[in-house]
Design brief:
about 230 residues; mainly alpha; about 0% strand
Length: about 230
């Protein structure tokens, strides 16, 4: 295990912006279920879970007070963003491309923060990558659990977790090669966002389990007659 690295520090306004975008995305996702009626409190809870759920999971695993509870700004930002997402759903739906780009950047930002936080706490490289990816996608996991839908990481999608893992892994490798932690974090952030955006635009996905099973069945030789 290498020596601990300093955590990747970002301005408070940037962290709050990332939380707000995550909360907004969570509210828009919840609003897409027309068969489920959510009141304002329900939307606020979904927004809070999506906005900084990953950070809370990270801090709980590191046995520290969640960063979201150390400032008065995080909860109000998450709640307001979630309510705006519900009340102005049609407006934000028209900004789908912009929101997708911001979501990809937020994914990379959360991943960089989570990975460097884990390294600064003295975790080895592999657990640091895991914790960075968990920070990036943990909000989506909590959102899906609260809405009782299949978890996004288990559905056929556009490499959401893969992008986070790739960015975290590159960050750790660059750090081990002696790269400054800020530069390594920026490279990891850019890689995560790039993979995520390209996956959405080009419809990249991991192989579906049923598709793999069909290939196996086609390759299986016919059984000999008794």
């Amino acid at each position: 295990m290498t020596d601990p690295s300093p955590a990747f520090q970002i301005p408070l306004w940037a962290d709050l912006l990332a939380v707000g975008i995550g909360s907004l995305q969570g509210a828009l996702f919840a609003a897409g279920f027309r068969d489920r009626r959510l009141d304002l409190l329900g939307v606020a809870i979904i927004g809070i879970a999506t906005g900084f759920g990953g950070g809370i999971l990270r801090d709980v695993l590191l046995a520290r007070v969640p960063l979201a509870l150390e400032s008065n700004g995080y909860l109000p930002v998450a709640v307001v963003a979630a309510l705006l997402g519900m009340l102005l759903e049609r407006v934000f739906r028209r900004l789908g491309v912009l929101l997708a780009i911001l979501d990809a950047l937020t994914l990379g930002l959360f991943g960089a923060i989570g990975t460097t936080t884990a390294l600064a706490a003295g975790l080895p490289e592999v657990p640091a990558v895991f914790l960075g990816a968990l920070t990036a996608v943990g909000g989506s996991i909590l959102r899906d659990l609260l809405l009782n839908v299949p978890i996004a990481l288990m559905r056929v999608g556009s490499l959401y977790a893969v992008a986070a893992i790739a960015g975290a892994a590159v960050l750790v490798v660059l750090r081990d090669l002696g790269t400054d932690v800020v530069i390594a974090a920026i490279v990891g952030l850019v890689l995560t966002a790039t993979v995520r955006i390209l996956a959405v635009l080009l419809h990249w996905t991991l192989p579906e389990q049923r598709a793999i099973e069909r290939v196996r069945l086609r390759r299986r030789p016919p059984a000999d007659p008794a």
